[in-house]
Amino acid sequence: MDRLHRKTLAIILLLLLSLPSLQAQQEQGIALSGSIQSDVLVPQKDEAIGAPDYSEWALTNTFAELHLQSRYVDAGARFEYLQHPLPGFESDYAGWGVPHVYVKGRMGKATLTLGDYYEQFGSGFILRTYEERSLGIDNALRGGHLVWKPTDKLTLKALTGRQRHYWDHNDAWLTGFDGQYDVVLSGNADRPLYLTLGASYVNKHESDEDIMVDNTHRLNLPENTHAVDARIRLQQGAVSVLAEYAYKTQDPHVGNGYIYRNGYVAMLSASYSRKGASLLLQAKRADNMMFRSQRKYDKASNASMVNHLPAFTLDHTYALPALYPYATQYDGEWAFQAEGSYQFKRRTALGGRYGTTVKLNVSHIHSPQKEEKLLHGLTMGSDGYTSKFFSWGGTTYYQDIDVQIEKKLSPDLKLNLMYMNQFYNMGVVEGGTGGMVHSDIVVGEGKYRISPKLTLRGEAQYLFTADDEGDWAFGLLELSALPHWMLTVSDQYNVGLTHEHYYQASVTFNTGAHRLQAGYGRTRAGYNCSGGVCRYVPATRGFTFSYNYNF
Predict the structure, then answer these.
(1) What's the DSSP call for residue 260?
(2) Which of 28, 156, 258, 530 lies at 20 to 30 Å from 88 by C-alpha?
(3) pLDDT digits (tens, 9 = 90+) for 239-271
(4) Low-confidence ranges of the chain (pLDDT < 50)
(5) Shortest CA distance to 514 belongs to which of 469, 480, 477, 483?
C-alpha cells in the first residue's frame, strides 16, 4: 500500500473513531455536518449508439465530506473514491484518497484558513477556484487564505497556494490580494445609493521549461504572470450597474499556441428588478484570457484553470434546448445578452384569472477581428495577432433567442411554453470541422396536481434542423407521490439521421436527509455544460444508481 493510501486510511479511521465524542460535544458548541454522494453506472455495450464495453462491471464517482464547526475553529475533510470514474472524465481523474483537508480559525475580525480552500475575486476574471462534480472540476488551492474585515465597509483578502490537479498539485504558486469597499453614498432611507469598489491582483510563478521552437531555438518563458482586476458597482432601488476590467501579462501556453500577447476582459452589466418585472443587459469583450496554473493543457481540458469567464447564455434545463450548449471562447469573443421577464397581473386581458409570466432571452456571441502578427513566419513565440477592442469579425459563435410563457390555468394545472431559435457554430465551440447548426425548438410542459400528494408532470419537445443529425423529439412523464416517491420515464429520439431512441426510466425515493435513485436507459453522446464550461460525455447504456445524504 502506497504512502497516499496509508495516510487516507489513517484520516478516515481517525474521523470514524472521533464521531461518538464529537456528537456528544455538539450541545457544548461543536457542530458536526457532512454529506455523502455516490453515483454509479453498471454499463452495457451498445454498438448502435457507440457505447463501449468497459472492463469494470461498475463505474462510480463517490464523495464523503465531514465538517466540524465551533466558535473559533472549523475543520473538515473530503474523501473521494474515483478509481473507476463515470464515462467522460479525464484519465487523470481516476484515483482515491482524501485530497481536501482544511483548518479554519477565527479571531476578532480575521479568518485564517490553512489547507485546501476555494475563492473568487470579483466576477472570477482572474481568480475563481471552485468544485463542480458534474464537470469533473476541483481546482482548489492548497496553502493559506486570510480574510480581514477591519470595518463593516472594507474586506481584505490575501492568499497563496498551489492548485489541485486531480491527485496532485501543480508546481506553480499562485499568490493573490483582493480588496472590496462598500459604502452608502446617499442618506435617503427610502432609496439609498450603494457604491462597491473592488480591486484584485494575482501572480502565477511557474518555472521556465524547455519548449523548443525548432531543433536549435527554445522559448524564453516568463516565470511570473501578473493579472489585475478592477470593478465598480452602483445600486439604487431596483437598478444596478456593474463595470469590470481585468488584464493579464504575457502567459504563453499550449492553449494559446505559446504566443506572448497580453490578455484582457471587459464587462458592462446593468439590471433592473422589482416584483413582477426584471431586465438584464450585459456585454463582454475578452481577448487571450485563458489562465492556467500549468502550461501544458489545451483548450479541451478543464484542469488547472485559474479564472472563469461567464458565457452570457442561459443554462437550459430542458433536454433539447440544452442539446447544443455554448462553451466560452477564452482566446477572444464579443458576447451580448439581454434577459427580461414580466408578469401580467391577475384579472387583466393578458394575465387572465391567475396571471401570466413572459420571459425573453437574447444571447449573441461573435468573433473579434484579428490580424496575424508572426515572428519569422511562426505563431509560436510571437504576439500571435493584433485585435482592436471594438473590432468585429465575420463569424458568429452562438446565438439564441427564446421566449417562455408560464401560465396557471387552474388551481391544479400549470403550463409552460417555450420557443427557441438557435445558431451553434459546432466547428468553433467543439473544435474540428463541424459547421453552423441552425435550429428551431418548441417545448411544452404541463404540471397537474391530481391530489395534495400526487402530481403528474409532462414534457413534449421538438427540435427542427436541417444540420448535423437533423430533427430530434423528446417526451417525458414524471409522477411525484409526496413525500417519498417519484417515477420518471423519458425518450429522446433522433428523427433526422440515426433513428435511435435514448430512453430512460428511473425511480427516486426520499426520506429525511436521504435520497436514493435507481434507473436504466441510454444516454446520447454530447456535452454537459454549466456557465460556459463543458465536459464531453460519451454515449452510455446501463443501470444507474445514485445516493445522497446530508447531515
Answers:
(1) -
(2) 258
(3) 999 999 999 999 999 999 999 999 999 999 999
(4) 1-2, 4, 12, 15-17, 19, 22-24
(5) 483
pLDDT of residue 215: 82
d(CA 387, CA 390): 8
Task: Note whether 408 and 414 are within 8 A (CB).
Answer: yes
pLDDT at 190: 78
Please give the pLDDT value at position 456.
Answer: 98
| The residue to which cell 393578458 is assigned | 350
Residue 260 CA to residue 265 CA, distance in Å, equals: 16
pLDDT for 186 equals: 80
pTM: 0.91
Give me the residue label for grid cell 455554448: 326
Cα separation, 453 vs 548, whole angstroms = 23
Q: Which three cell numbers stand for residue 12?
A: 478516515
Annotate 412-455 with three-state secondary structure: CEEEEEEEEEEEEEHHHHCCCCCCEEEEEEEEEEEEEEEECCEE
**Residue 16: what pLDDT?**
46
Q: Does residue 512 contact residue 544 with C-beta atoms inside 8 Å?
A: no
Cβ–Cβ under 8 Å, residues 517 and 484: no
10 vs 180: CA distance, rounded Å? 41
CA separation for the pair 443, 424 (Å, rounded): 19
The CB density around residue 506, as the number of other CB atoms within 10 Å, is: 18
Neighbours of 272 (CB within 10 A): 15
How far is it, in rounded angstroms, from Cα 126 to Cα 305? 10
Check if the beta carbon of residue 142 is closer than 8 Å to that of residue 113.
no
- The residue written with cell numbers 421577464 in the block is 341
